[in-house]
Amino acid sequence: MIHETAAKVKAEDAMNSELKRMIDEASRVVVFTGAGISTESGIPDFRSPGGLWTKMAPIDFNDFLRSAELRREAWRRKFEIDKTVQQADPNKGHMAIAKLVDMGIVAHVITQNIDNLHQNSGVPPEKVIELHGNGTYAKCLDCGERYELADVRVMFDETGECPECRSCGGFIKSATISFGQAMPEEEMRRAEDAALACVLFVAIGSSLQVFPAAGFPIIAKRNGARLVILNREPTDLDSIADLVIHGEIGPTLAPIAMLN
User: Fold this and answer.
1) Which of 37, 58, 98, 222 could bond to 205 as cystine, CB 3.0-4.6 Å?
2) For the stretch 135-163, what's the b/e string if a residue is b when 16 or more beta carbons lie within 10 angstroms of its beta carbon?
């Protein structure tokens, strides 16, 4: 047992060293993150058994539009979920990525997450490509006016109804991409451009099962980039990756970014 443990540690060290070498040698790195990086900040993986979606399944976008009752329910669930999400702070994984961005090593961070933790860790907003939107504010679905959640909460509590835009009367919705809602064209274009321009694509904390987002590692790989997958569990794309590390994200990335 002692020999098996020592061999496992040695193998993990070798893979971590290889990841550092690949990052050091790459002229342009793109990082892609999923829910797994945020679970280390205490945000539950929504899709896992026992996750928040098992208790509060997301409401389809078309149902949100057609039903006043479901719009009210969507906001009730949003405020309930935020009791957990808003307490989260960036962890070592986020901070390591932020440092690599600051050092000019990582060009862009493509993320499936909606928690704003990459920005909170210090990554400039223009470097973050949010495929599924951002849950820390709201927007009017018609004119696009931005609303802060605290203001929306006041409006919701006053009427008990889905808030309507002061400017145009449209529905106000969390600035996330719901099931049934079109993916954001600009962010999808930027993500594809980033994937095609990189020489190293590092997918972190994602099951790589949700498309079209999970297609970006494939795009990068087919264009000649090397692909690294860092995730606690195996993914469907492990077989095409140049390096696969099954481990904790923060402890793996912190030494590479030389965090104290």
Assistant:
1) 37
2) bbbbbbbeeeeebebeebbebbeeeeebb
d(CA 40, CA 8): 22
Q: Which of 94, 108, 118, 132 is catalytic?
A: 132
* Nearest-angstrom CA–CA distance, 236 and 105: 27
What pLDDT band is residue 100 in, cutting at 50, 70 and 90? very high
DSSP 3-state of 174: strand
Once rounded to an integer, what is the mean pLDDT over residues 135-139? 96
Q: What percent of the chain has pLDDT over 90?
A: 78
Give the predicted TM-score (pTM) of the model: 0.92
Handedness of CA 93, 38, 22, 26 (dihedral sign): negative
Using left for φ > 0, alpha for ψ between -120 and 50, and beta otherwise, residue 258 falls in left
Active site residue 132: yes
Q: How confident is the model at residue 192 (pLDDT cuts 50, 70, 90)?
A: very high
Q: Which amino acid is at 223?
A: N
Q: What is the DSSP string of 41-101?
A: TT---TTSTTSHHHHSPPPPHHHHHH-HHHHHHHHHHHHHHHHHHTT----HHHHHHHHHH
- How does residue 84 score in pLDDT terms, banded at 50, 70 and 90? confident
What's the angle, vertex CA 189, arms to CA 191 and CA 223, rounded to 5? Answer: 60
Query: Which residues does 228 contact at the CB level (< 8 Å), separation at least 6?
Result: 19, 22, 200, 201, 202, 203, 241, 242, 243, 244, 245
